Amino acid sequence: MLVLWAPLALFSGYRAIVQVYSVELRLSPPALQEGATVIAAVRTSGRTHVEVVVELIQEHRVDTLAAFLVRSNRPAAVDPRTRSEVLRHVVQPGALAHLRSGRAIVRATATGRSQWMRTPPPTVRELRLLCPESSAAVKPAGSPPPVSIVCLQQHG
């Protein structure tokens, strides 16, 4: 019995420490605009639940676009399979109305749960965006925001 359970126990201990294996964040198309899809793919150890939050950040404003939970395996301590989830969030009309020209960030944060009185640090992935000057910059104050805002993804 010891020969069978010892490897499972060792691997289970590793999975309690390393809970998030990977986080991928993409935009489809590679620009943030109404109707675009924000895709967050997460792969976890399956040992415990992992919370994933996708946010849009510009200057001092943070808007939560989506949040989801990657569930654990049952029984989590002895089931070594990984868990994967993919979130596809479509940006709704009006969700980007507060954006101004300048830089913005789409951030996905995956946070595991406390195991052995230790909470692992969150795993974070970011997409940096550049929102170009729009015709709204020359409109008088009090006029409605532009109908279509497109923020392009920056590479590097």
Quick structural gist:
The chain has 156 residues and is mainly beta. 10% of the residues lie in helices and 44% in strands.
Strand order of the largest sheet: 2-9-8-7-4-5
Low-pLDDT regions: 135-140
User: What gap, in angstroms, lies between the N and C termini?
Assistant: 52 Å
Counting helices, strands and paired strands, the structural category is: mainly beta
Could you tell me the CATH topology label.
Answer: Immunoglobulin-like
Which architecture does the CATH hierarchy give at level 2? Answer: Sandwich
Number of distinct beta strands: 9
Helix content: 10-25%
Q: DSSP strand (E) fraction?
A: 35-45%
- Quote the average pLDDT: 86
SSE ordering: HEEEEEEEEE
How many separate domains?
Answer: 1
Shape descriptor = elongated
The total of helices stands at 1
What is the CATH class designation?
Mainly Beta
Radius of gyration, taken over Cα atoms and rounded to an integer in Å:
20 Å
Q: Largest sheet, described in full? A: 6 strands, antiparallel
